[in-house]
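Thread: Newbie trying to understand structure tokens

Hi all, I'm a second-year student working on a class project, and my supervisor (Dr. K.) asked me to get a predicted structure for one chain before our next meeting. I've only ever worked with sequences, so writing a 3D structure as a token string is new to me. If someone could post the tokens and maybe explain what I'm looking at, I'd be very grateful. Here's the chain:
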Amino acid sequence: MTTMYYIPSEERNRGLNIAFNPASYVHKSHLPSTLCEGYMHFDKFINVWLFSQFPCFNVCPELRSGEGDVVLNLIVDHWYDLLNAAPLLGAYLLRNKLLSSPALLMTNGELLSFISLPLSLEVRINETRECEDILALGLAIILQIGRHLPPPLIERLSLIFPKGRSVPDVSAESTAANINVFRMALRYAHNKL
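---
Reply by user tm_fold:
Sure, no problem. This is what the structure looks like when written as tokens:
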């Protein structure tokens, strides 16, 4: 006997968009200028171009693992919030440095409220040069705690962020503390929109 699982339509649509409508989330820096200009900005053209240019779109990623994989479920459930959550994660990693420069924090109250949360982030920066790009650090953290994800999903994930960004080398595990900070960053990012 086959067991049927009910997947709510919102989840089903999000999964279909991630797999088959990359135009809904791709960062414009990955597109040629002719597709970014107003007269050619049609999702169908962009999707055809992306499928022809990126081999990751030839494989449909596994988007549901059930209850076991918290990181996969968080990423899929909050796919459209990842670009806004990454800088929050990066800023939390650099919170001691950011707290010593009040001018930046006075202009961004949301960033200040997020890095003031009493959370524990267990991440180590492995580079000798100092990295201050909070978006790149956040992306590095997401990629590290989600390094077990299917490669086609990771490739799609990289298309959300600006092209050519150097991702710093960090060490992070999928610990409860890191997942908690990631979950809070996603909530803050979602409420920002």
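A couple of things are worth pointing out once you decode it. The chain has one domain: 9-192. Residues 1-8 have pLDDT under 50 and may be disordered. Feel free to ask follow-ups in this thread.
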